Amino acid sequence: MTKLILQIFEALKAHTILRWTSLMVFTIILVLLTVGQSYKEDISDFLPLENEQQKAFMEYQNSSSARRIYVIFQAPSNSCQPAIDFFTDKLEKADSAHIIDYLYDDDPEVMQEAMNTLYTRIPYLLTKDDYARIDSLTKVPDFIARQLENDKQMLMLPSAGMMSLQIQHDPLNLFGSVLERQKPQKNANSAMLLVDSPFGASETEHNAKLVSMLQQICDSVSNQYPNVTVRLTGGPVIAVGNAQQIKQDSIIAITIAVILILLLLWLVFHNVRNLLLIAVSIGWGWLFAMGCLTLVHNDVSIIVIGISSSILGIAVNYPLHLIAHLSHTVNIRSALKEIVMPLVVGNITTVGAFLALLPLESVALRDLGLFSSFLLVGTIIFVLLWLPHMVRRVPKATHQILSRIGDVQVENKSWIVWTVVTLTIVLGYFSLQTSFDADLRNINYMTDEQKQDMQYLEQITHFNSADSNVKQWNEWRMSKGVTLCQQLREESAKRGFADDSFDDFYTLVSTAPADETQSLTSAIVNNLSDNFNYIGWACGFIVFFFLWFSLGSIELALISFLPMAISWVWILGIMSLLGIQFNVVNIILATFIFGQGDDYTIFMTEGCQYEYAYRRKMLSSYKHSIIISALIMFIGIGALIIAKHPALYSLAEVTIIGMFSVVLMAYLFPPLIFRWLVYSHGKERLQPLTIKNLIKRKNTHALAFVSDCYRYRGVEIITAVNKRLRRYKNRGYFQLIDDKLLPSTKTIVFVNSGWGELVFYYAIQRPNMDFISIDNDYDKFCVAKNVAENRVSNISFINKNNNDICLPGDINTEIQTILLNPTDDDIKKYSYLNPLILK
Known about the structure:
This protein is α/β, with parallel strands linked by helices. It is about 65% helix and about 5% strand. It has a domain at about 715-839: Rossmann fold. The protein has a five-stranded parallel β-sheet, with helices on one face. It has a four-stranded antiparallel β-sheet with strand order 3-4-2-5, with helices on both faces. The model is unreliable at about 460-470 and about 800-815 (pLDDT under 50).
């Protein structure tokens, strides 16, 4: 991958017209795709519903109970009626299209709906005294027959309208005491008007206009009748209030975050051009995401785009790492060469984590996964292809605080290590108690006034059913209710009632309330809980798999993954201690944390490998970038801690806890474990530790030993070394060298020795011979020399472009030359030595 990116860099550098034309063409295409996108604003898209559940939910959303707005009138004296009349007159004038339906609470339809609602809540409202009353009534001889005769007489009265409804639900008058308790007190100082929104319950854009119009009418009523208080409540009103509060909180938080982030970046870079290029990189990535999403969907949720803006905290890593790394290298090509692998690996694992959202039932979460993935892919494409040609290398700025943090080696402080280990054990215990709050009401925003209105609404609509003995209801209906229904059927048939006259009563008695009340809500709760577990496991598996695949070693994958796993334990444990629960909103941060965490640990692991391979300082540079990135993410989402909306506030809570945990673990564990694998008592291990040689304790095979010595020096290096060793073995080169050169030679020169694996192998096998390794690539020369140091002493290293020559002893004059992977110029140049050519 590094080689490909560098080739593209050289091609675009050499062809200026191609560079800018390609950027312009791609940008125009993305703009045209984005212009054709349409948008929607429906919070229900976040609910994880299957097809049948989605249909049921849509039916509920379109039902009158879900889209109903309640206008509550209260006055100290009998003055509500004039205010209601004034309100309805204003409403009729404002509703010129006649699309709004409204009802007064004395309307028969309102009373019928209230009656139906009450009887569905009977199992929750019965008390022990009610059950005692029912038992005493049913024990009276001929009770059912006499009650049916009473029902007949009541139905013959002229005013039997509502009584007929009551008899259908309760022909034996078993629940009369409950009905009496639940009747609202009819006093003239309160009244209610019901307004049905024609837009449904969750379409906040249109409902906002409706609520605004109704609020203006309420204000007019208050001005006309100062002694009357008029308030709005109901699902659409609360949904609109939530949307408005989210926008208000977001604007304030984003303003604060932008100011702080710009101040931070200015203090770090002191370069306006590079700051603008960071913004351009993220902007192009956002445009790429919008354009690609158009190819998948015709419309996208504005809420998804708003939430995914927090992904910018991850996307900013890519230009940030490249620009910050420039000050530690001699030119842009060197910076690009060193930064490509950690950037690409981090991008692959993060995108993989977000793609784990695709199988979820929630439409919005699927779109969020797609949009976030496209955003990160688009940003890294821009950063790797075009940004290197735009940035300018500036002198390294000195930042005492950030530099000190970057230079701190927490892994060398034993008290920090043992404190973290101890806290991990403690927090691991508490992490098991972290729960998922599937109650969507807890992430709704309501003012104190709205809460009071909802309590009042529950009282007058008979919905104050709190905790009741459902178990007792089920026991009664199974032991006595079934028999009672059978007796009622027989007696009602004798008295001429139709078979379906009391179906409502039969349904009530024969139905378990849990099944009736939990159908859709239970499905949402279960799906949310399942999604919570799935996101955790799926993200973990995908990230670990890509780490293993990208780093080429299960040991390095474990080093990079372990900090994320431990930070997750810390997050769960701290949340449990603070009483913070996951919900449908902040669970999204699980993927964010994995995304940020794997970026940080990958950079730390790559930094450890780089320092081990080249013995040049790199970790402090990566730590510097990580601190800046973490501060940006911390500020960007952490600014929501000032939000009043519970959902946004919960995002900030998890972000603050998560970023602290992720950065601490990334700083501590990769260097700690890596150094344990490759160092012992301050010196390099003769053979680095691997899972395989830990199990076997010792690996005596020379080729395996050579491979292990290169294992933790970078995936590009170990891949090339193993590939060349296999090729030499398969083509019989080892046997050829043994037969032709070794018997009569005391010194062998390896030209184009690359990473030095072949010369290192023979230096181990033939300790009494002398070897010379020549290569014009200074990086390969350094790695080869570092591998051999303290392991063999019979190799001299020569770099043809540098005079960095290491001569451990006198070179014997009897020399043979091996030419590895030569060019035509190499063959001509060394032909006088009659070299052995190995391709």
